[in-house]
Design a protein that fits this description.
Number of helices: 6
Largest sheet: none
Number of domains: 1
Structural class: mainly alpha
Helix content: over 70%
Radius of gyration: 15 Å
Strand content: under 5%
Oligomer: single chain
Shape: elongated
Order of helices and strands: HHHHHH
Distance between the termini: 17 Å
Length: 112
């Protein structure tokens, strides 16, 4: 259930991005990645960082909740990149909470 929710939240995060009127025309967009691709890449980077950090933190503290929080701190720059996407502040708290639950239960976040 948590994995499904994480996927749904991530999909919503991608779907909430808006192309601003100042974006270049469609012909020039074909050479640049779209917002959905950028969002997926940033989320993958965050998840990979968490998958590397959580086992280290979990080995140092018996409290899985604290280990997850420490992993989030270690991956703050990746989180900042992900939350820089427009409207991500509306969904990210839910994504982070579900990601934390998956880390605590499974020890890692599923990657694509």
């Amino acid at each position: 259930m948590s994995r499904f929710f994480m996927f749904a939240v991530a999909s919503a995060l991608v779907g909430c991005t808006v192309v601003s009127p100042s974006q270049p025309n469609i012909a020039s967009q074909s050479t640049q990645p779209d917002t959905a691709t950028i969002t997926r890449t940033l989320q993958d980077n965050w998840n990979q960082c968490l998958n590397q950090s959580y086992p280290i933190e979990a080995a140092q503290t018996p409290d899985k909740n604290e280990a997850a929080e420490m992993a989030f701190q270690a991956c703050q720059s990746e989180q900042d990149d992900l939350t820089s996407i427009p409207y991500s502040n509306l969904i990210f708290p839910h994504l982070k909470a579900e990601t934390k639950q998956v880390l605590i239960q499974d020890g890692q976040v599923p990657l694509p």
